Sequence to fold (232 residues):
Amino acid sequence: MNIIITRPLIDSEDLMGKLFSLGHKIIHVPTLKISKAELDPIDPEKYYAFIFTSANAIRSLKLIKPDRNKLCFCVGAITEKIVRQQGYSNTISAGGTINALKNIIVNSGDLDKKKVLAYICGDNITSDLDLELQKEGFQIEKIINYTSEKIKELNADTNNLINDHPPDIIFVYSKRSAESFNELMKKYSLKGLMTDSKVMCISEKVLNVFKQNGWKRLEIFEAGEELTKLKK
Fold:
């Protein structure tokens, strides 16, 4: 099959390699440029735990002094993997959704609501997790440590690949990425080639972006399920 992956290369290289080894043709269409925010290093001693909803948040983390024993709540397995690669061992994964992450934090018997939790995220988020947790009585400080900018140009090689090999499957991992992808396809008049393409959406909000733009074949998946979904 012809498969489009929209995640940045650093997040998708492993998956792309596995798909390629299985005989699929991979077209990489990154939709967002990720940049570290300019802010002072964080003092981990101020916080009882860290909350990460993306791998970019942990990659962009700057600390005054590392505390590898810090409790880390992670939205899913991929984010948890990156956190562990950074040396943290006290991690909890929510299975891939913000709502599941919220429920794990709310139902954790180990958390003292008087202690501050650091919610570390980007400048564009699809859910106000900090506000939801504050409603539950938690002390949350939101720290924006990276920014995302929509990629507005498609290089000639990628354009030609899509024209020559229209995708059977498209994997999209965020609402902002979905918006960027639709804008790129419209700008380069490529959407007409994708009437039979199935768009795999990481969440309902991603699916709604494509639905509003007239896409018909839509399905929700969880990060890490890509190979399983293709086998089905």
Remarks:
- The longest strand covers residues 139-150.
